[in-house]
User: Fold these one by one.
Assistant:
Number 1:
Amino acid sequence: MNKIALITGATAGFGEAIAKIFAKNNFNLIITGRRTDRLTNLKQALEAEYGIRVLPLSFDVRIAADVQDHFESMPEEWKNIDVLVNNAGLASGLNHIQDGDISDWDKMIDTNVKGLLYVSKAIIPLMVDRKKGHIINIGSTAGKEVYEHGNVYCASKHAVDAITKGMRIDLLGTGIKVTQIAPGAAETEFSIVRFHGDTAKAKTAYNGYDPMTARDVAEQVYYVTTLAPNVCINDLVLTSMAQANSFYINRQN
Ligand code: NDP
Ligand code: 8X3
């Protein structure tokens, strides 16, 4: 019987790469995101290549009632979730706080913090009932240090850092592992979204150095699920070799 992994934000970037690596390792998958066409394409590709089953669920993680409805109405056999990867998230805008845009702030806090909580609220009780499971929250180096212009995005990822610690404490004794993966810069659609669709500007975020790929991050997400049952990686910070932390990037031009 295949294990089940639920990956939020699987229509792009890390989530799509995480879906591929879990599929390759024989997991059945629940994949979520707002872009239904991408979910359908990914389902077809992964089922054809790996012979696994994929359940696509299209909703906005910011809408608590939709999150709850989608997970409640899943067929019972899909509720035996072994791994939850809380990955859906974004940065929106890169302004100084005094020039910040309230709709950018709402998007980041509602998605990165509240969305992660809504999904977790729906899934954790299922894991508690089964006395097993692994929650993997995608934080960031932005949740470790605050950098100029990062303000609210950094705050949202510091919240993920704190929520992950809180989950691990509260779930002690339930048999559920809780891990944070905190990546540095990786080239996905992240910067395009951060710069509101300006792809040329997004490209400049990676000027002069090689950032990580989505696959680099996905491999570590899968890795933390392969340890002995009594071992849990609590927090895994990873960057490319060009980056030491949020502040220091070795750009060659
Ligand atoms: P991408 O923009 O490539 O992918 C983001 C994913 O999140 C998409 O699948 C998107 O799906 C989903 N998503 C965003 N908003 C919502 C929403 N409201 N409801 C449902 N799904 C949503 O970015 P990354 O893959 O790079 O980012 C993934 C995570 O990794 C984020 O939490 C990000 O903060 C974090 N991160 C990224 C880093 C980077 O440098 N790339 C570094 C450190 C952390 P859709 O649009 O279809 O809804
Ligand atoms: C994304 C990494 O440095 O752009 O979380 O904030 S960074």
Number 2:
Amino acid sequence: MSKLTQNLSTDATEPQGRQANTMWSSRMAFILAASGSAVGLGNIWKFPYITGENGGGAFVLVYLLCISIVGIPIMIAEVMMGRAGGKSPINSLRDLAQRNGLSTRWVGVAWLGVIASFLILSFYSVIGGWAISYVGHAASGSFAGADADAIGAMFGGLLGDAGTLMIWHSIFMVTVIMIVARGLKSGMEKAINLLMPLLFFLLLVMVGYAASTSAFDQGFSFLFSVDFSKLTTAGVLTALGHAFFTLSLGMAVMIAYGSYLPKNVSIAKTAVTVSIVDTLVALLAGLAIFPLVFANGLEPGAGPGLIFQTLPLAFGKMSGGVLFGTLFFALLVVAAFTSAISLLEPVVEWLEEKKGINRFVATLIAGGTVWLLGIATVLSLNEWANFHPLAFIPAFEGKTVFDILDYVTSNLMMPLAGLLTAVLVGWFMKREMVRQELAMDSEGAFNGLMFVLKFLTPAAVMVVFIYNLI
Ligand code: PHE
């Protein structure tokens, strides 16, 4: 039996302190769960529109580079910290700091991530709600024959209506709570095992359709022909920031998921697999979307409205638009769910451990609080659209509560947590402990990874971080 099939078929060997029913049942289960976390709105909503805004191929190339030199090393570091600690992110970091003779202040890295994931989920759920409501729009044929104004009004109407947004946000959160409350194996693994294959299926159907349109070549070359004259410094920084978001890094999520990873699984190979899956989904989403945009003479650089305003125009014009539009937004909903599940997990795991309450209650408390917080995002889109609570700080001028949450988590907390993670593993943890936990086949590869974590990753993140501050 090859090593891979062996890993796929053997059951978890548990580290100390963990019950068998609180471990992923196989390497494959972890890969699906971590890919589920990574593949989300970032891949299907954000990646296509930032690629569109930044001119295509050259941006994609830089993004791939960022995934390789920043994303993959940090993912390896996070999963490693989680598995070595074997507890919730906060307690894993406390444990690791003690075992390495370091200050317990390093726990701050986990706190940063746990708080960020909590805050992110509060608005992620609202956007997930838009996607659910668009499944309804697409299925009821309301895109058919609509012009840009009508579609714009549909989107504006949704955002302007706090009551409707609340309903979708609540449906989204209740579903996430129900899945997470049932526990790792009977809730999360089961849902993910169903949702991920569905996601790949829907995505392939969409790419298949795009391939049948006249503009597939044009979409393909938009994504893959590299023209550096279209690339700006801001584009490079966007690519790096997005590498974090899309791989779910800097939010304690991979530490939490790593804590459930069986000891016999190779962390490096697994992290590389997850990153490849995530990247493939983003590229396939681009291949599904841009041909439709070009075939209908629409603008690739339309910004955040690309899939909610531009794409519905294409669905409204094409034959089979009701079916493909519905499938597309269903795909978005599925992707959002598997990410949202992972965003709730770090807090739930901590509450279970710290407060000794059972998982069901912990999930209710955490999920309920996130739901409440989400109301601020819902209102930011309408009633509070002109409420700029931190306007006295220049960076927050004109920003609503939602804008502030998004900015602070994605541009400050995530890169800072990522930077500290690389520094902790690269410079402060005992090299021998890292080596043992990673158990890489080749010493050369291990040394290479440590070099990247020590120098390249911190340098790259620092550049983005400083740029974001100014
Ligand atoms: N990676 C997810 C996406 O691309 C978002 C996410 C970020 C999920 C951080 C979990 C943690 O949409």
